[in-house]
Every structure is written in structure tokens, then in C-alpha cells.
Amino acid sequence: MADKEEEVVPQTIEQNPEENQNETRKAVAKPLLDVVDVSIGEPEKRTGSTAISLKETYMAYYVETRVKEGESAAGILEVPCALWRRYSEFEVLRNCLVVQYPHIVVPPLPEKTATFTWQQSPTDKFDPDFVERRRSSLEAFLLRVASHAELSGDSVFLSFLQQEENWKESVMATSFHAKADSKLKALNASFRIRKPDQDFEELKNYCNDLEANITNLLKVRAKLADTLYGIHKIHANYGRVFSEWSGIEEEMGDGLQSAGHYMDVYAACIDSMLEEEEQFADQIKEYLYFADSLRTVCKKHELLQYELEKAEDHLALKGQEIERVIQGKTSWIGGLKSKVFGSVETPEEKAARVKQLEEEIAEAEKAVEAASRTVWEFSQQAMKDIERFKEQKTKDIKDILTSYVEMQIKLCKKVQAIITVSC
Question: Which residues contact 276 (CB under 8 A, 6 or more apart)?
């Protein structure tokens, strides 16, 4: 990457956003996160009206962007800036990124409702704990986008960080959004291709394995959380029993009271640990949803491969047609017309048809060449970003599991200290 940024004109959402995005991508010399800090502050519960004048309650998230010390964002962002965003606006942003950068593994958004829960997990989307976890996950989404060399220069993303009024409406009003909607529908369709790419077939298997392994990990974690919670909380009953027992014992009263106290402490220590563990679970869940991002890249490749095969089929059809014309053979429609109307194709008409077909074949060959080049370029770009993703995943999972083990060691030491003191 270059050491200095090139100065660019600030980007806004206009009626032709693709031109803005191309200009921005060329201008940004390094990831945006190298220049600014992006964070989400305390969320706020609000009430608004829907399009049909119905009241709705939603959470708004305070997005702040500040320039890092010693850096400059001149021409890229008007910072510092702070604004409120709804979850639905994050969805619009991500959809735009998925469509504009089909070869990139776009970071996922956090879940709308809680999954892989255990008995004490909050399930209400307005629960303070759930809202805080979503805030943290949305912040992680913005940080991942801002740290990506290509995504961080997108004009829609840059305007998301600094244009509060009517941002969503301006995106929805552009032709880009209509294009995004049609592309997303195309990605959701199923295509049967004759020559699947082995690398992308292996990637689909990788997605399935990643999803299955993380799903099993989250299920085991939820069961383990339930079990640990039950073990610790049952000691609260012992604590109550010892405390009541101490009231009727003269010689053993102080010892029983002390034992009851330590039982209560042991029962309570699991609460903070499981709250901290929820953060690790959310970080693991992110990679569960990354599997869908990888599948989206695979689907885009299948769509391009399908278009290539269609172009090849069209070229083959034109080749067969000109061969029949040269050999003097006619289609069943042409044969029927000659029998009904008694017309016979003249040499001049035949030559004109051959010339027309040759022109169509030349166009079809160009279409095949263009489609083949598009597939090759997409494959090269996608595999490069997938390798980046795999390196990121390996590092993140290692850090998450290391932190989780450290947390478990801390809990064991805390329990050991309680037992040592009580004895």
C-alpha cells in the first residue's frame, strides 16, 4: 500500500453511484481504518411511524467517526462526524456492498433475534444485554468494512458514516438500488451448470463444514452454560440451608454461617463469567454467518459460469445453423414453408443468410470471450479475497478460543480461592 493518501473529492450518493465508487476506490490509498476510528456509542430506544402511519419502536445506534492522531482524512470524510443509524440502514448498506463487490466476502450483520440460547439468555430484542451485544456486533461490522482495502473506499459506505438526513431514502431512490434488488434475486436463484469450477466446489464444501462445526460448537457451549449455571446455582440452596442451620447450632453456628456465605459467593460467581462468555459466543456466531457470505460469492460465480455456458450454447447453435444452410438443409419450418408456398431459396438469398449467420457467429464469439474473461477475472479476485478471509478467520478463532480458555482459568482460580478460604 502507498504511504500517502491521494486527495479526492468528498463522495456523496448521486444518481450514478457506480462512477462515484470507481473514483473513490482509485483515490483511497489505504484502508479507512488506518486513518480514522469508527465506533458505536450507547444505543437509544425510539418510537416512530411506518409508511402506513403505524407506530413502531426501534433501537437507534450512535455512529461516531474521528480522525486518528497524526492522520488526515481530507477529501475522503468530513470528520469528526456523528449520527444515528437504525438496523435497517445497516442492512441497506450491506446489500449495496454485496451487489457492488460480488467477489468480496462481505462481513455479516449480527442476528435479529437471539439464537443458540441457554436458559438465562435474553430473547427480547429490547433487552439491555441483547441490545449491547448487538451494538458491539454492529461496531465490529463497521470496523471490518473500514479495515478492508476495497470496501472502505466505497462511496455508499463513506456517506453512511457522514450523511444522516435521508441517507436511506437517497440510496433507495437511485437506479443502483433497483440494480441491487435484481442482483440479489439472481443470487438467490438456482442454476444448473455443466462445468463447475473445482475451487468453488471445494469452497462450498468448506462453507458447509464451517457452518456445521460452528453450529455444533455453539450448541455444546449452550448446553455447557446451562449445566454450569445449574451446578453453581444449586449451591445457593446449600448456602440458605447452612445459614438457617447455623441459627439452631451453638458450637457449629459460626462455621455453618461461614460455609453458607462461601456457598452464596460460589453460586454468584458464575453470573459474570457467563455474561462475559456471551461475548465470545457472539464472536463465534459471526463466523457462522460468514459462511453465508462465502456462499454468496459461490452463487455469483455460478451465475457468471451459467451466463458463459449460455453464450457457448448460443454460439454452438449458430454454428449448427450455418452448417445446415451451407449444406442446403433446412429446418422443419423452412421445409414446411417451401411445401406450402412452393418457394425455393435462391443462391443470393442463401449467400445473404450465410453472411448474416457469420456476423451473428462473430458476435457470439465475442460474447463467449467476454463472458470467459469475466469468469476468469472474478475467480482471481474472489480467490484472493477468500485467502484473506481464511487468514483472518484463523487468527480470530485462535484469539477467541485463547481468551475463552483464559476466562475459564480465571474462573477456576476464583473457585479455588473460595474453597481454600472456606476450608
Answer: 407
Alpha helices in 13-79 (DSSP H): 17-27
Residues 330, 325: Cα–Cα separation, whole Å: 7
Identity of the residue numbered 74: A
* Overall pTM surpassing 0.85 (yes/no): no
Q: Which residues contact 112 (CB under 8 A, 6 or more apart)?
A: 87, 125
Q: What is the pLDDT along the chain (423 residues), one digit of tens a residue?
A: 444 333 333 344 444 444 444 444 444 458 898 889 999 998 998 887 665 657 888 899 999 999 888 777 777 777 678 999 999 999 999 998 998 999 999 999 998 877 767 666 666 778 888 888 899 999 999 999 999 999 999 989 999 999 888 888 888 877 666 666 566 566 566 667 888 899 999 999 999 999 999 999 989 988 888 888 888 888 888 888 888 888 787 778 888 888 888 888 888 888 888 888 888 888 999 999 999 999 999 999 999 999 999 999 999 998 988 888 887 766 555 555 555 555 556 778 788 888 998 999 999 999 999 999 999 999 999 999 999 999 999 999 999 989 888 888 888 887 777 777 666
Q: How many other C-beta atoms can be found within 10 angstroms of the C-beta atom of residue 365?
A: 14
DSSP three-state, residue 212: helix
Q: How far apart are CA 27 and CA 11, in angstroms?
A: 11
Angle between helices 198-246 and 253-326 (to 10 degrees): 170
